[in-house]
Amino acid sequence: TEVTEKLEEAVTIWIKQIRQILVESEQMRREADDLGPSAELEYWKARMSTFNSLLDEIKSSRVKKIISILQAARSKTLKQWKELDGNVTVAANEAKDNVRYLYALDKFFCPLAKASPITMMEHVPSLMNTIYMIYCTSPYYNTSERMTSLLLKITNQMINTCKTYLCEG
């Protein structure tokens, strides 16, 4: 029972740490007003990296051994652990899925940033079709909040490109 208590203490600390990561990941993002769409991709890549690392740690043999010992001891901390394990898995899957879909838009980011306003407009129909495809097929990216954030960044990029064009022209 002494060993079980020590292991439960360790798992309780892990639970607090993982909860903190999950809470921070769900907080509102504070971003500059003029960020372009590549910032959205970078955000999700960083989030994917964080949650994949966390998943790797959760699935490590050391953690699995501790959890199996606590299962044998019928520890009450396992209910919280399993819930958090599921939440981390969902967050990792969301980030991975969003990165995959945003990579489909990546080919438009350079033309949006480097083109003239006239040539930029040539890319808008296919860009919007790709965004529509993401909205229709992504299980995570099809929310009003996610789409608004993405469209805002695309609009910011278009405005910045037009500003640059006007200042240089």
From TrEMBL:
InterPro entries: DHC, Dynein_heavy_tail. One of its GO terms (biological process) is microtubule-based movement. Residues 5-167 form the Dynein heavy chain tail domain. One of its GO terms (cellular component) is axonemal dynein complex. This is Dynein heavy chain 8, axonemal. One of its GO terms (molecular function) is dynein intermediate chain binding.
